[in-house]
Specification:
The complex is a heterotetramer of chains A (about 375), B (about 500), C (about 325) and D (about 325). Chain A has about 375 residues and is α/β, with parallel strands linked by helices. Chain A is built from twelve helices and 14 strands. Helices cover about 35% and strands about 15% of the residues of chain A. In chain A, α10 links the parallel β10 and β11. Chain B has three domains: about 240 residues, P-loop containing nucleotide triphosphate hydrolases (Rossmann fold, 3-Layer(aba) Sandwich), CATH 3.40.50; about 170 residues, 3-Layer(aba) Sandwich (Rossmann fold), CATH 3.40.50.300; about 70 residues, no CATH class. A six-stranded mixed sheet of chain B has the order 6-9-10-3-11-12, with helices on both faces. In chain B, α12 crosses α13. Chain C has a two-stranded antiparallel sheet with strand order 2-3. Chain C has one domain. In chain C, β2 and β3 form a beta hairpin. Chain D has about 325 residues and is mainly α. Chain D has one domain: Orthogonal Bundle (ABC transporter involved in vitamin B12 uptake, BtuC), CATH 1.10.3470. Chain D has a two-stranded antiparallel ribbon. The chains are: A alpha/beta (about 375), B alpha/beta (about 500), C mainly alpha (about 325), D mainly alpha (about 325). Chains C and D meet through α6, α12 and α14 of C and α5, α12 and α14 of D. β19 of chain B pairs parallel with β1 of chain C. The structure holds adenosine-5'-triphosphate (ATP) (2 copies), beta-D-ribopyranose and magnesium ion (2 copies). One adenosine-5'-triphosphate binds next to α1 and α14 of chain B. Chain C: It is a multi-pass membrane protein.
Chain lengths: ~375, ~500, ~325, ~325
């Protein structure tokens, strides 16, 4: 039968350590509903410039911030510690280069993933005569006071990627978000895998809000589809650890029928674990990193790649300049969040770019492409 | 054994102790009366230090009882012993080089005022303590690391006295002292005695034992052989108890002029930061004694000849060939060996086996010279020849007594067939039996053609062993004496007129 | 030499005293039994071989770390060195199979060079190795990110990856023999031989009492530097195997230094030097890897793993740390 | 000879302050040439805030290192302390004192565990505190998805953001803690005994020092300092943060600061004043590089070089002193 738990393979042991566990503290039903609704929404603006598009815009006035250029724009960055952020930051720098005439100085401070350093950085930037401040917060809750202090200083503040718990910034820019990401992958995998099959969920690490929301949406999807989630493991983004975990799960359960993950960094490692064990690669999701897209195509996987596009790093520069022009901007500024599927896979593959490049960079029209990203 | 005096300060009954299954002490009884100096003697490894550490709380006995002033005590640590009025001068230094004299002296019982360490009081009391033992040049706030060995010994003594102990244990307190300092110590011990303090005195120097003690307990293989009144015994009898056989009290025969071969090692006008104008010839077949006061530069000379702290000026030739002794390795390649004075710090590799310790130098420098098996066999023979006492050659050397460790170190160097041997206080802390074995060995090496340089603070030994003696003072060679010189001759050169004037 | 007293067999004594391998073997056996109960298939030769193969890098790192630790030092830079090596390899090979062997040689040279620098700074400039290698760790991580602009480039071709990923298949009895395991067996044997050699003995002596060693003619700084070079080489081999096993990433070596040190200590080697065996160190690493697999098999929740790991390490070290009473 | 003149044990101003002065002078010039200002108010405030956080941990770390031990669990203790404090306060000023007390008590308990493992169970400090760190990591990972609790507004306004001129209150707190630690080291029996245990445990033991007690106390104090750093961070972040300690690399950086400050890693020599110098040096390098917008990875390389170089200079001086 296909009933989980009926056959010897689905013995009590498999359900013992399994299941999706408690829902994350980060899960907010209203946000979840809103994001899922956005997945179907149509953005305003030119489709070939998704970084300028907005989903469900709600415009705010910015006339008070109007100022003559050229401007000094300051950026407090949470970190540059992974390829996603590297690609994004290069994209942002290229955008600054593209707006050369309007930006006289671009100051970038890297908090190296430390909350307390970013708080100090923001404080420091406030003394530097910036015309606008862009913040990509390291942690939502803990950076809130610092961002509030920046708002109070009177200059326009633009927050993107991860958010803050305050409405004071002029706008908050990000794509649809983690619920959307997690949901898309989970829906796909649970539909494609064999009914009653066993799913392994791979997470990078606990406690990062953008990642927690991804898992919490996936959990909802799996619970609804009654998927037998046999393990939820943290990989630290380490491919070796990932391979060992997947290998041991294949051993323990004979086979694994679906793999979901909250970020694409270890997707290739997970695929390889199946290859090396001589097992077929089950339905799986990754992200828009080129190494995954390539193995997907080469090995004809059943796969999907939800994205958290790096083109969102262009938008804060554009937004800041619009604000300094006194033009209205949308707050929040929700960017579209495309999904790479079997159908559009070829359009994103690019053999000339490095394996850890992100396909969704929206950077092909920017100065210095492709050299800057290589 | 005579009945314990009714007022015994310390009474030990049936003390037993084993380390890793090896019985080190077995049913030892001992007592000390107030005002008594009670000497404990025995061969290396007889268990003297272990017994002393049991009384001072350093080790817990496996069996037996300790009574202090008639009260049974379970000493859970050195602190308990201090509380009970027991102070100890350890055989090995127990000082912190980074800390000052005062901080060392009062470590563990710093004077406090209103809960805070009273540094002024600490310095003042240290000064008074030092003065009371005749030491006036030593500053209470000097870091101990800057002091010479003798001064450190003085600090160690002051540290024990600072406890105001009723019972003071001295485990080879004179091993590092020169004669005039030993005199000071004598005075001190007598004063303590008058104040009714009991003293347990451990020494290999039997003269001291006879000079100071009222009774003597002899230990052998962890058992008490006897306790005798000092007045009623003789050196010979004591030695017989210790070794279980008669020992000749003579030094081995000196080299005849005809036995002396060519100059093995010649030094001309050499010096470094600690030494100046050193001229020296050492011939095959002779034992060249080096005398001098503490800090006169004797060890510095040995260290220069062995390339540890090389000469920076002058010239050295080995068998007529000029050599630059830049490091121990170069010295060893030139056929030189060096037995250091600081056995614990520089002589042994404590947690390695006896065999590994003995093989260390051959492995390090002459690895390719002979087959492994042959080399090991050779070293085993040498260990047997120097009569190392151990549970096996795989025993960690730190569990051996000091004297036996020294023998292992000797075997290490003998394995290299050195032509020049530098001995720095080779019999310090070594029992009579082993001492005469080492003397014989040194002489035999010379007879077999080695040139031997022997530094010793033990004047009878220096005079008895040397074919010639150079005496050092202030980093120079103050003069040379032929065989047959007297202690007075050595001291006259060692002290010199300049030093006289300084005092 | 005179025997004071006969005691139990010399071999048993050597194994039992601190630094001996008996405790770690006992722990390993317990874990194997636990795995056997839960996942009997794991002990089938082919799967056991795969497990050993994938554990080879950390075992080699532990062996490398052992040389440094037993000589009285630390090497905190090995994790970052592994990362740097993997990233460098990917960029230099850039998916071109023909460059595999030259790059392998280059990695070995690079590993040796980093070890040499660590060793020279520690021994000649007298910087405590904890600090030297901590600084080197920062330098390597920073430099490799800097060099690759924060994202590894290039790629590792199959030729390179096969060392860490592939196996000789269809071997009688064993089923398969991962290349990594072959490398491990050869290098482990070399390590054992090395530790029995004069070099090995003097290395331990240096860790135990460097002054005595120096005065006995041991070239202390050269010996210690050699230990760092061995550690660097071990890291290079580990990087080649790890890069092969799982491909290029910045995470390749993250945290491996602590893993290796923990393994070495688990194996009964004393931090501070002078005691312990290389076999113990390697068994310590194997034990740690087995512990992780065990947690996978028993489904210990991802978040709780560190707790379990921490508790087991403390327990194991506490058990094997029981020394003869010093008083 | 006997009358030879001996220098008294000077506890000189550690060389790290020379390095600090040099760094600041050069940094000031370079930043000036770059068109910036190193010592403007906001930069100075930021610098002192960074120093305050690291400094509190490093002072505690100094104590255990002086005693010949080490604490690799501080990063987790910091995180734990922010959470205990913020969750107990839960946004109300009323719970401020109990929350601070509870955070410190929990930290002290971890220190006690570290101390007992090191002394009683005789596990090497490196492994013992690494193991305890893993225990705490497991707890934090399983029970916290992210920031939790809310720091009392009073604490945020005072310890978190209050300052006297350009000097944050938190830096004054660091100075006070440093002063207290300095006093404890030089004027209490505990301090004398701690340095002795670090210098040579056997000598200390045979001199009647209760080594175990001294070391356990040092570990408790170290954890208390880490706990205090956690409370400070909670006051900066407005909530508890389960990963703030590890992200801040407080374990390795605190050890680096201690050693740069001239304390011997092996124990027995050094002090807290040098440590504060080390902390200020690291924070100044950060501030200067921030001003110059130096790439974070390049900065890391430089930091590595400086840590090694600083210690190499000490080693050189120690060698010369030993030779003199
Ligand atoms: N173990 C050692 N380590 C470093 N230096 C030493 C050592 N032993 C001796 N020296 C150096 O040699 C110097 C010269 O004094 P030296 O020890 O030679 O006097 P000495 O006459 O040999 O006295 P002693 O009888 O104490 O050996 C000492 O000041 C010391 O610096
Ligand atoms: N901590 C220890 N562990 C194991 N064995 C020990 C230990 N301390 C001493 N021994 C052994 O106990 C025996 C007695 O040693 P002890 O130091 O008491 O001798 P001793 O009479 O003081 O000798 P010496 O005259 O050489 O100082 C020796 O065989 C020694 O090897
Ligand atoms: O913030 C970013 C993004 O959310 C990305 O998806 C993963 O890396 C994180 O650093
Ligand atoms: Mg003794
Ligand atoms: Mg000497």
């Amino acid at each position: 039968t296909d009933e989980p738990g009926a056959g010897p393979a689905g013995s009590p042991s498999s359900s013992a350590g399994a299941g999706t566990g408690e829902q994350s503290k980060f899960f907010v039903q209203a946000d979840y509903d809103a994001e899922l609704a956005l997945l179907g929404a149509t953005p305003t603006g030119a489709a070939d410039r998704p970084w300028e598009q907005v989903l469900n815009p709600t415009m705010v006035e910015t006339a008070t911030f109007r100022k003559a250029g050229p401007h000094k724009i300051c950026f407090s960055n949470a970190a540059l510690n992974n390829p996603w952020r590297q690609v994004g930051f290069k994209t942002m720098q290229a955008e600054v280069a593209a707006q050369k005439g309007r930006i006289k100085e671009f100051v970038h401070v890297d908090a190296e993933g430390k909350d307390q350093k970013q708080i100090a950085d923001i404080n420091d930037l406030l003394g530097k005569g910036c015309d606008a401040l862009i913040v990509s917060p390291n942690t939502t809750a803990t950076l809130t006071p610092a961002v509030e202090a920046a708002c109070k200083a009177g200059l326009p503040v633009v927050v993107f990627d991860r958010g803050v718990d305050t409405k004071c910034p002029v706008t908050f820019i990000n794509p649809i978000g983690g619920y959307g990401f997690g949901h898309v992958g989970a829906e796909f995998v649970s539909q494609k895998m064999k009914p009653g099959g066993k799913l392994l969920a791979l997470r990078i690490l606990p406690g990062v809000d953008v990642l927690e929301t991804r898992w919490s949406a996936a959990k909802v999807a799996f619970d609804k589809a009654k998927v037998d989630v046999v393990g939820v493991e943290f990989t630290d983004g380490d491919p070796a650890k990932t391979k060992k975990i997947v290998d041991d799960y294949i051993q323990r359960y004979g086979t694994i029928d679906g793999v979901w993950m909250d970020a694409g960094a270890v997707a290739v490692a997970a695929v390889e674990a199946f290859q090396d064990a001589g097992k077929p690669v089950p339905p799986i999701n990754g992200e828009d990193q080129l190494d995954f897209l390539k193995i997907w195509k080469d090995k004809k996987l059943t796969a999907i790649a939800p994205t958290y596009p790096t083109y969102q790093w262009r938008t804060p520069i554009i937004a800041a300049l619009r604000i300094l022009d006194g033009q209205p901007v949308s707050n929040p500024w929700k960017l579209p969040q495309p999904t790479i599927t079997q159908d559009n896979l070829d359009q994103y593959l690019d053999a000339d770019m490095p394996p850890l490049h992100y396909a969704m960079c929206g950077c092909t029209d920017l100065p210095g492409y492709p050299q800057r990203w290589k | 054994m005579p009945d314990p005096p009714p007022t015994a300060l310390l009474t030990l009954r049936g003390i037993g102790k084993s380390f890793l299954g090896v019985r080190v002490l077995d049913g030892v009884d001992l007592d000390v009366a107030p005002g008594e100096v009670h000497a404990v003697v025995g061969e290396n490894g007889a268990g003297k230090s272990t017994l002393m550490k049991i009384v001072s709380g350093g080790y817990a006995p496996d069996e037996g009882t300790v009574e202090i002033a008639g009260e049974p005590r379970v000493l859970r640590g050195p602190r308990d012993a201090q509380r009970a009025g027991v102070g100890i001068i350890h055989q090995e230094f127990n000082l912190l080089p980074e800390r000052t004299v005062a901080e060392n002296v009062y470590l563990g019982h710093e004077p406090v005022r209103r809960g805070l360490v009273d540094r002024r009081a600490m310095r003042g009391r240290t000064d008074r303590l030092l003065a009371s033992i005749g030491e006036t040049t030593l500053a209470a706030d000097a870091p101990v690391g800057q002091l010479g060995v003798a001064q450190q010994q003085v600090v160690e003594i002051a540290k024990a006295l600072a406890l105001d102990a009723r019972l003071l244990i001295m485990d080879e307190p004179t091993a590092a002292l020169a004669d005039h300092e030993v005199e000071l110590l004598y005075g001190l011990v007598r004063r303590l005695q008058h104040r009714g303090i009991g003293v347990l005195y451990v020494s290999h120097r039997l003269t001291e034992v006879f000079d100071l003690s009222g009774r003597i307990t002899v230990l052998k293989d962890g058992r008490r052989v006897t306790t005798v009144d000092t007045a009623g015994t003789t050196t010979d009898e004591l030695v017989r108890h210790m070794v279980g056989r008669e020992l000749s009290s003579y030094y081995p025969q000196r080299a005849r002029p005809a036995d002396r071969g060519p100059v093995r090692l010649a030094v001309r006008g050499a010096g470094n930061r600690k030494l100046r104008g050193i001229d020296l010839d050492v011939r095959a077949g002779e034992v060249l004694g080096v005398g001098g006061l503490q800090g006169s530069g004797r060890s510095a000379l040995a260290r220069a000849l062995f390339g540890v702290a090389p000469f920076t000026t002058g010239a050295v030739t080995r068998d007529g060939t000029p050599v630059r002794l830049r490091s121990p390795r170069t010295a060893m390649r030139a056929g030189i060996a060096y037995v250091t004075e600081d056995r614990k710090g520089e002589g042994i590799v404590p947690r390695q086996s006896v065999l590994d310790n003995a093989l260390l130098a051959s492995r390090a420098v002459f690895a390719a010279r002979s087959g492994r098996a042959a080399r090991t066999a050779r070293v085993r023979d040498l260990l047997a020849a120097v009569e190392v006492r151990a549970a096996g050659d795989d025993q960690e050397i730190r569990f051996l007594s000091g004297g036996n460790q020294q023998k292992v170190v000797l075997a290490r160097w003998l394995a290299l067939d050195p032509q020049v041997l530098l001995f720095d206080e080779p019999t310090r802390g070594i029992d009579v039996g082993a001492k005469s074995a080492i003397h014989d060995l040194v002489r035999r090496l010379a007879r077999e053609g080695a040139a031997v340089v022997m530094i010793s603070s033990d004047l009878p030994e220096l005079l008895g062993m040397s074919d010639r003696i150079v005496v050092m003072r202030d980093g120079r060679i103050a003069g040379e004496l032929p065989a047959g010189a007297t202690e007075e001759d050595v001291m006259a050169l060692a002290v010199g007129h300049a030093t006289e004037a300084e005092r | 030499m005179q025997l004071v007293q006969r005691r139990p067999g010399r071999l048993l004594r050597a194994r039992l005293r601190p630094g001996g391998v008996l405790p770690i073997v006992a722990i390993l056996v317990v874990l194997l039994v636990l795995v056997g109960i839960r996942q009997p298939g794991f002990l089938d030769p082919p799967s056991l071989m795969s497990f050993l193969g994938r554990s080879a890098p950390i075992i080699l790192l532990a062996a490398g770390q052992y040389f440094v630790i037993v000589s009285g030092e630390f090497d905190l830079s090995v994790g970052s060195l592994v990362t740097a090596q993997v990233v460098v390899a990917a960029r230099l090979i850039d998916d071109d199979p023909a460059r595999t062997w030259p790059v392998v040689l280059l990695l070995l040279a690079f590993g040796a060079l980093v070890g040499l620098v660590n060793g020279l700074i520690t021994t000649r400039l007298r910087v405590p190795s904890f600090i030297t290698t901590l600084g080197m760790y920062l330098i390597l991580v920073g430099a490799v990110y800097l060099w690759s602009d924060g994202a590894p480039k290039g790629g590792l071709p199959e030729e390179f990856r096969r060392f860490g990923r592939r196996a000789v298949e269809d071997v009688p009895v064993l089923g398969r023999l991962p290349y990594a395991l072959l490398v491990l067996v050869v290098l482990a044997a070399l390590a054992v031989v090395l530790m029995r050699s004069d070099f090995g003995r003097t290395l331990v002596a240096v860790g135990d009492n460097p002054r005595t060693a120096h005065l006995s003619g041991v070239p202390v700084w050269r010996t210690r530097t050699a230990a760092f070079v061995l550690s660097g080489l071990a890291a290079a081999v580990a990087a080649i195997l790890l890069g092969g096993y799982s491909g290029v990433s910045f995470q390749a070596g993250a945290g491996l230094e602590f893993g290796a040190i923990t393994a070495v200590v688990l194996g009964g080697v004393v931090l501070g030097g002078g005691r312990g065996s290389v076999v113990g160190a390697m068994l310590g690493a194997l034990t740690l890897e087995l512990l992780f697999a065990l947690m996978n098999f028993y489904g210990v929740s991802g978040a709780l793993r560190s707790t379990v790991q921490g508790a087991i390490i403390l327990l194991a070290v506490a058990v094997s740390a029981t020394r003869p009473s010093s008083r | 000879m006997r009358g030879l003149s001996l220098s008294p044990a000077r506890r000189a101003v550690p060389g790290v302050f020379v390095a600090l002065a040099l760094t600041l002078a050069v940094g000031w010039l370079v930043v000036l040439a770059d068109g910036g200002q190193l010592f403007n108010q906001s930069t100075t405030v930021s610098l002192l805030h960074v120093a305050a956080g690291l400094g509190l941990v490093a002072v505690g770390q100094t104590l255990v290192i002086l005693g010949g031990s080490l604490d690799l669990s501080v990063a987790y203790v910091i995180s734990l302390s922010t959470l205990v404090a913020a969750e107990t306060m839960n946004g109300s000023d009323g719970a401020l004192l109990p929350a601070v007390g509870l955070a410190l008590a929990v930290s002290a308990a971890v220190g006690l565990l570290n101390g007992l493992l090191v002394t009683r169970v005789r596990i090497n400090a490196f492994i013992a505190t690494l193991g305890v760190g893993l225990l705490l990591k497991g707890y934090l990972d399983s029970f916290y998805d992210g920031p939790a609790g809310s720091t009392s507004p009073g604490l945020v306004q005072s310890l978190g953001y209050q300052r006297v001129g350009p000097v944050p209150l938190s830096f004054l707190l660091l100075l006070a803690v440093t002063g207290a630690a300095w006093f404890a080291l030089s004027r209490t029996r505990f301090g004398h005994h701690l340095v002795a245990v670090g210098g040579d445990p056997e000598v200390a033991r045979l001199s009647g020092v209760r080594n175990d007690r001294v070391l356990v106390t040092a570990h408790v104090l170290c954890s208390l300092c880490a706990g205090l750093a956690g409370i400070y961070l909670a006051s900066r972040l407005g909530s508890g943060a389960p990963r703030v300690g590890t992200e801040g690399l407080y374990d390795l950086e605190s050890i680096a600061a201690v050693v740069i400050g001239g304390t011997a890693l092996a124990g027995g020599r050094g002090g807290v004043v040098g440590t504060v110098g080390g902390v200020l040096l690291l924070a100044s390098i950060d501030a200067i590089f921030n001003q110059l917008e130096v790439d974070a990875f390049f900065k890391q390389v430089i930091r590595g070089v400086i840590i090694i170089a600083a210690v190499a200079v000490y080693a050189r001086r120690a060698l010369r002193k030993a030779a003199a």
